[in-house]
Design a protein that fits this description.
187 residues; mainly alpha; two-stranded antiparallel ribbon; 65% helix; elongated
Amino acid sequence: MLTKARIAGHPIHPMLVAFPIGLYTITVVALIVFGLIGSAFWYHVATLASIAGPVMAFGAAAFGFVDFLGLPKDSRAQDTAIKHLLLNVTALVLFAITAIVLGTHWWGSGVVQLEWVAPLVLSVLGLGVTIAAGVFGWTLVQTHHVGVKPTTGTMAGANPEDVDDLDELGMPRSTVTSVEVHEVYRH
């Protein structure tokens, strides 16, 4: 299924997901570094990353939702997409809570007590959930071909806009063997 949300033929959602994933990872790493050395700089890095991560995730989700709406009802691709969506929403909520806790302590009243253990636990959980969501996202692209134009030779004459899931269409797998591929690269 070729996505409707694309720029110059390239799907937008996969381009944007790198930002929240990176910001979520920065949050965890910065909190660990803060816990080890106690520098407020790393606490501030974690706070800002935990704010920017959900904001970017929301932007990526908007384009992912466009892809989701294009999936055929009651398909394996839609089931996988629902799991992907729910896990990403869970991660977004965990990091939003992390941002609130970190921000409250950074900009809190008078005495500054930089709480980092609870935000670290929340962000590690959020990063784990993000990884699980990524597995489902990978499955959507690699197995169900969501967001990409099918290039298999058995699709001759088919409109890529109409293709959902090559597996569900009962299309035969490629008959090219690893020996044949090896022969092509050897020459």
